[in-house]
Design a protein that fits this description.
By secondary structure, the chain is an alpha/beta fold. The protein has a nine-stranded parallel β-sheet. Strands 10-11-12-13 form a four-stranded antiparallel β-sheet. Strand 11 and strand 12 form a beta hairpin. The mean pLDDT is about 95.
């Protein structure tokens, strides 16, 4: 028996329902208690989490995993060779914390085996359990959340889907290095929360800012160790299956583009998609979109370049820029494999090794252009301030 099998319940599934090359024909699925999928030679594992007891105003999202699966398995494999398993569902524990424990333990187990967990929630407070899966890995991590709000909550209140981030920030031991929000909508965000984000040198990107140049989300996403995607960040007309779906938000193709960027991120080790509520569904539209987002993630995953820079490698072109007024020097690295960019942030020797993995940070050509015009790239300055 696998170390994590006892957390999971089998699902009702038959590969005979699918055509050759459809994902449902290619994936190993947990369908009976005697046949838990083997984890050898596996790249990714799908995990359903049927938990919504802390879903403020969105009860019913616990039913999402099976609905999304149904659409995912109809999709064809594409040009990649899929090596994946479906571990079934983590059902609600006696207490919500029991569900968190099961998910945390599963994430930790899979990451240690170099298997990518794809979590289908469930409510977004499960992001906290996703984060806890990294606690014993002895490294600081970066979180990227695609969300219309920050979900900070009140630290004295019980954790829920609108108040998990504050718990992550204050968690001890502290192994969160950076949090980035993509797509917040200003009229949904308390100004005090935005001020707190700035004080912590976290990255926040307004919906309009991001949608005007969706390709600029790539370096933000490339900085993530884990991603949490709230489906309500997508506009209601594209993804209606959420009690709090809004008229504004991302378009479907933008969500899929960001998921492809996520898949291509060599550093990313877990993905969670949360808050899909089938009770508000219209013509299976949201489940189909979530399935296509996962497909795009898979395609990106199998397009990984493994090109995180080595400062001395000939596979990279190095550019040295001196900012006259700021009196700073920045080294930029461009990969010959992928044409992706990184920039080097000076690292104080007094910090030891704790944050060293964050000193080469993803950027875009736009950041390099800014530096050559004697303008300080925001993300360089925020990381520099955090390390200083």
């Amino acid at each position: 028996m696998s170390d994590i099998q006892h957390f999971f319940s089998p699902i009702d599934f038959s590969a005979d329902l699918f055509e050759e090359h459809q994902i449902g024909k290619l994936i190993s699925v947990y369908t009976d208690a005697e046949n838990f999928p083997e984890l050898q030679d596996v790249d990714m594992a799908i995990i359903g989490v049927c938990e919504d007891r802390r879903a403020t105003n969105n009860q019913g999202c616990s039913k999402a995993p099976n609905v999304v699966r149904e659409e995912l398995y109809k999709l064809f494999q594409g040009s990649f060779k899929l090596r994946a398993v479906d571990l079934g569902n983590i059902n609600p524990g006696h207490e919500v914390e029991d569900t968190y424990y099961a998910l945390k333990s599963t994430i930790n187990h899979l990451i240690r085996q170099n298997i990518m967990p794809i979590i289908i929630g469930g409510s977004q407070d499960l992001t906290y359990a996703q984060f806890l899966g990294y606690e014993k890995l002895e490294q600081t991590i970066n979180i990227v959340s695609v969300d219309s709000t920050f979900d900070l909550g009140n630290i004295d209140d019980e954790i829920n889907n609108t108040g998990y981030l504050g718990k992550i920030i204050l968690h001890q031991p502290n192994y969160l290095f950076n949090y980035s929000n993509i797509g917040y909508q200003t009229y949904l965000v308390n100004p005090e929360g935005l001020a707190m984000m700035n004080r912590l040198y976290f990255d926040t990107y307004r919906l309009g800012q991001v949608r005007s140049a969706i390709e600029e989300t790539e370096p933000i996403i490339r900085h993530a160790d884990m991603i949490s995607f709230d489906i309500s960040a997508i506009k209601h007309s594209e993804a209606p299956a959420n009690a709090k779906a809004m008229p504004n938000g991302f378009y479907a193709e933008e969500a899929c583009q960001m998921m492809r960027y996520a898949g291509m991120n060599d550093k990313l080790t877990s993905l969670g998609i949360y808050e899909i509520n089938p009770e508000f569904e219209v013509q299976d539209k949201t489940a189909q979109l979530a399935a296509q987002m996962i497909w795009c993630f898979m395609e990106g995953f199998y397009s990984r370049k493994q090109d995180f820079p080595s400062r001395s490698s000939s596979d990279y072109i190095k550019f040295h820029v001196v900012l006259q007024e700021e009196k700073h020097e920045i080294n930029f690295f461009k990969s010959k494999k992928s044409n992706r960019w990184w920039m080097e942030v000076p690292y104080p020797a007094t910090k030891g090794l704790k944050f060293e993995r964050h000193t080469l940070m993803p950027c875009s050509f736009k950041d390099y252009e800014m530096a050559t015009k004697n303008e300080m790239p925001d993300r360089w300055w925020q990381t520099y301030s955090k390390l200083s």
